[in-house]
Write a structure and sequence with these properties.
The complex is a heterodimer of chains A (221) and B (188). By secondary structure, chain A is an all-alpha fold. In chain A, 73% of the residues lie in helices and 0% in strands. Chain A is globular and about 55 Å long. Chain A starts with 7 loop residues before the first helix and ends with a helix. By secondary structure, chain B is α/β, with parallel strands linked by helices. Chain B has eight helices and five strands; from the N terminus they run E-H-E-H-E-H-E-E-H-H-H-H-H. In chain B, helix 5 packs across helix 7. Chain B is elongated. The chains are: A mainly alpha (221), B alpha/beta (188). Chains A and B meet through helix 6 and helix 7 of A and helix 8 of B.
Amino acid sequence: MISENNKLSDVVSNNIDLLPILHRLGLSANIGERSISEVCGINQKDMRFVLGILNTYSSADYFPKPDDLELQPLVDFLIQTHNYHKQVTIPRINGFIEQLKQHMPNEKLLIIVEKYLNQYIRKLIQHIDFEELEIFPLVKMDNKYDVNSLKIKKIFKQHTNVENEISDLKTIIIRHIPDNIDMNLVHDLLHALSHFEKEQLDHARFEDKILIPKLLKLLSK
Amino acid sequence: MLSGNAVIIHISPIIQQGLKNILLARNIGISDIMNAFPECSVLSEWKNMLLFVDTQYAEEFKKHGKIMKKNGNTVFGIGTTMSANQPDLYFDEILNIYDNADIILQKINDYGTGVSDYKSNNQLSAREIEILTKIALGLSNKLIADQLFLSIHTVITHRKNITAKLGIKSISGLTLYAALNNMVDSHS
């Protein structure tokens, strides 16, 4: 488990996928030889929140205590994550498809996968919009606000679909890799999809296990 | 791989040619194409053949149907209506003219006809391919059940088996799989 006295550089060396997480937390500067506690102090960040996020991303078994993650900072972090996917992850994946298509413009796999991805991205953006417009603002509302809890619970189902679709896409690409394709690019694409899938799973865990229960509890008061 | 052991008996040149193309694409050779039901003496000479016969020859089957199935022959009826899909006394399997190529090949394969490169432990059955095709076209369980004269429970069981065999869980993923394997039009 990651603790306050760990050197932040060591933590990232052990799991480089935490680097974009640090960036979203506003902690990518002044890492040097410093501990997590010191870096949080310099950047004026809530260390308990930072540790809760880093540990959740590092271990699927880790479950932060309810008070470790306050609602508003969590929502801000989730919005940062949405933006990261819209600005970085999705364009990166699309870029690999485009590069592959330049070599093989008539390849059926690429044509169909591109179509699938476009549909997937459309659904994901709708899901993100739903969360940002309908769910996240509830954090700021007063407890008497009449909220339909079914609306909140709706995102559980959407998460399951979203996760399975990326996993399925990887499986299908691997089974249908055509001859003469640029295998390094396919590897880059699959790596990007795997990273995206892992991020989606962790993101859904924050929302399903932490955000939604806390929100439902808050609204029931 | 088989060579020259299939016989097509059907009056329609469209069906003759269509079936021929499907069989040849899987290296199943055609030994003869007939426009009419053959004489008994011809039937008795066939051994270990794949016979594709129009189900409309009702009278002829009553007379010679049992002879066709002797000598290791496998008899596939070619049905021309949506309801003609059940094997009976004379047919090992019914191929429906509305079946796509994959379903036809799977049905043939299910009878151990040697198209070994097409089948593995995880290969879908003809019925599963039929259901997967309908899932990919966006049909609900209820509609699939109605169209195939099955209970919803049976359709759900088939869906679970499809997911288990393919390792694909989402409807979008199943649709993608169906499109890549020519079960549905990739533009749809």
